[in-house]
Design brief:
Layout: H1 25-51, H2 56-82, H3 86-118
Helix pairs in contact: 1-2, 1-3, 2-3
Biased composition (Polar residues): 1-26, 119-142
Region (Disordered): 1-29, 118-150
């Protein structure tokens, strides 16, 4: 085989893992820590919104961002656990479960606030009755003119 024709695809690297990722264990840990910190930040933001004055639009935005961030965290968590020694996994899983419990609690609060805002109470619904419409252009009791007969 000609050594000049050797390609990247034919080379092997000690950093290759079974998922095809070229990331080293250190970079997987760094990504996991970054995603975890980001997730924690957005959980805290949503918790502040849920416990303070209600800003429904902000809650919707943070909930969407949190949904995306959670998925990124799940992906990095799995890569992190795959490269972790067995003896360290239990502690990492416990830490992860605590974070997810907090996430579920805050999301439940946010969904309750969003549901309450989406369904106004009957006292908030004030439509004038149709009989009080005094505009002659839209009054449904206007007489219909007779058509001429031939």
């Amino acid at each position: 085989m000609d050594p000049t024709r050797d390609t990247i695809n034919n080379r092997t690297s000690p950093t290759n893992n079974r998922t095809g990722n070229m990331a080293s264990p250190r970079s997987r840990t760094r990504a996991y820590d970054t995603e975890g910190s980001t997730l924690q930040y957005w959980i805290d933001q949503l918790q502040k919104l849920c416990t303070g004055p209600t800003d429904i639009e902000a809650i919707r935005q943070v909930t969407g961002t949190l949904r995306h961030t959670t998925q990124l965290f799940f992906d990095s968590r799995q890569r992190h656990l795959d490269g972790m020694p067995e003896e360290e996994r239990d502690a990492a899983i416990t830490e992860f479960n605590e974070l997810i419990d907090k996430l579920k609690t805050v999301q439940r609060q946010a969904y309750d606030l969003l549901a309450a805002a989406g369904n106004p109470s009957s006292a908030e619904i004030t439509q004038p009755p149709a009989t009080k419409n005094n505009d002659p252009k839209t009054n449904s009791t206007r007489p219909i003119p007779k058509l001429p007969t031939f």
